[in-house]
Amino acid sequence: MSKKSDITLGEIQKLIFGFCDKYLNDEYTNFCRKLLNELNNETDISRGNQKNWAAGVVYAIARANFLFDSSSFSISPDIICDYFGVNKNTAGNKASAIRDICYLDIGDPDYCSKDVVDAFTFVEISEGFIVPKNFFNKISAIEKMSDEDMELLKLKNEKELLKQKEERILREKEEKLVRARKKKEKEMNAGQIYLFED
């Protein structure tokens, strides 16, 4: 590996870790780190825009883990793109290129959470049905629970749903503020252009 490649890797890591510290947990940060290292082994990342590479790595991990789906721990493409200063097409295209270069598949245990891996791993149950592993695990655990444990599980699930709803509301507010800021900046830029045209 060249010195230039080492320097570029370090700079892209700083960008990614800065984003992860603000928006993602340790698990997703680790996935991003592993994907960047794999990418660095497969292609010359010193060529091209560092912010595009960083956004592409985060976008690819978010996509593989369904983080754009608001029903789970989530983040919007807008937050990724705004943080790195790239547009959605660039981030999405770079993520697709990274996916192809590194053979990143949904359900890959090196880059996906256990929930995602289990959702894409299938098992055959005793009745002969084939179901996702996460579904099978839930059935097995529920069958062994006492009534008191079932009530505790229901309460825990209700608390988790409330927490997810609150987090989603906060994310939506943040996204709304980001969109409003962009709109205001666009209007201000348009007004400046208009002033100079006269």
In a nutshell, what does this entry contain?
The protein is mostly helical and 198 residues long.
Give a verbal description of the structure.
- With 198 residues, the chain is mainly alpha-helical.
- The protein folds into two domains: 1-112, Cyclin-like (Cyclin A, domain 1, Orthogonal Bundle), CATH 1.10.472.10; 145-198.
- It is 73% helix and 3% strand.
- The chain contains eight helices and two strands; from the N terminus they run ααααααββαα.
- The chain has a two-stranded antiparallel sheet.
- Strand 1 and strand 2 form a beta hairpin.
- Helix 1 (3-23) packs across helix 3 and helix 3 (50-64) runs antiparallel to helix 4 (77-84).
- The protein is globular, with a radius of gyration of 21 Å.
Based on Cα principal axes, name the global outline. globular
Q: Quick one: CATH class of the largest domain?
A: Mainly Alpha
Biggest β-sheet description: 2 strands, antiparallel
CATH-assigned homologous superfamily of the largest domain: Cyclin-like
Strand-residue fraction? under 5%
CATH topology of the largest domain: Cyclin A, domain 1
- Computed CA radius of gyration, to the nearest angstrom: 21 Å
Strand order of the largest sheet: 1-2
Total number of helical segments? 8
What string gives the helices and strands in order? HHHHHHEEHH
Q: Mind sketching the topology for me?
A:
Blueprint: H1 3-23, H2 26-42, H3 50-64, H4 77-84, H5 88-102, H6 114-119, E1 122-124, E2 130-132, H7 133-143, H8 147-197
